[in-house]
């Protein structure tokens, strides 16, 4: 284990019989003032800033947001030119502006690569469906040639259909002041607003801290270093994982897919993003990808068995699939949290799991993923587990930083994350708000040394 890339919480002992390994016991530190404003330590700030504050990713502060902030900030000017290619969807949604207006960009490209999608950067001609010029999006169709009027009308109808689809993709849906994706509206139960994007980036920094700065554990380094390697990131979110992978492997082609157009404005030349539903059938060729990755998305998948079989079909022989997902079951190693301990966070998770079951997904789907992968044909399926402290209670700086980010990510997301699952249980909004007060109080307790577990599941398609 190198000193400059330590696996902070990873167990060094051999794996057990079920091909899984788990991080060792985390030593707790001394008691902390639960109201202290110093919980986000310098180490946590450094961990966050190392991966989130960069020239490509929009700088997001760890300081609390103003409760009076508008859910739809006023539009700003597009960023200045950079050597990276433009992400067209993100340009259309600079600062997540809402509405059908489209910035003055050269072109907007729509494609049916996996359904009716919008390519946010360059795409090969084979995948091209149609292109719409931004200069034509607001034009009034007209023709002075009567002989060609029918043909012109057909062209205009097709053109306006494409523009309408483009507008629907870039728009968002607001419910009770919380912003959600508009494409396939309602399918993903969590928001896509600035708060949720900041949480995603916190979890990215947290995960790399846990994994010793590694973006993946699958042994695909040689494949990705080979020019032309193809990588697919399912549920890419802000695109931060795909962008960092593109920087590390500049000769690979990285494709990110998500229901929300929330990726940054400029991306590496080898990174593309699509707005699409990856649970729909793909029109990509079979055996196309060298590596398929999914992180913090499996809980929202309605049919994991079908998805895993589809992933298997589209991987090349010898290629890998990796899923990284938190198991939201709080535990402790020192009996500060027992099954009989009153703990509102645990109650909250149980209610969330019940609400997601009503919606049609499984909060704890990661537990069944290894067996689903084996049934699909994957071999060498392994599970690596990391303990994720809930709060800055550990003694050592590295797990303390991870715990600080985990706690903040939960606190900032409580209202938005809770809404749809708890409404699915027929809760009233006032009931949700009162209950969340108890959950916040539980998160502030320093006497409970609780942690979640990050599961990294890796499997190989046979040669």
From TrEMBL:
Membrane-crossing segments per the record: none
Composition-biased stretches (Acidic residues): 147-156
Domain of life: Eukaryota
Region (Disordered): 1-86, 129-158
Annotated GO MF terms: methyltransferase activity
Compositionally biased region (Pro residues): 70-81
Biased composition (Low complexity): 130-146
Family annotation (InterPro entries): SAM-dependent_MTases_sf
Pfam families tied to this protein: Methyltransf_23
PANTHER family: ABC TRANSMEMBRANE TYPE-1 DOMAIN-CONTAINING PROTEIN-RELATED, METHYLTRANSFERASE
UniProt record similarity statement: Belongs to the methyltransferase superfamily. LaeA methyltransferase family.
Protein name: Methyltransferase domain-containing protein
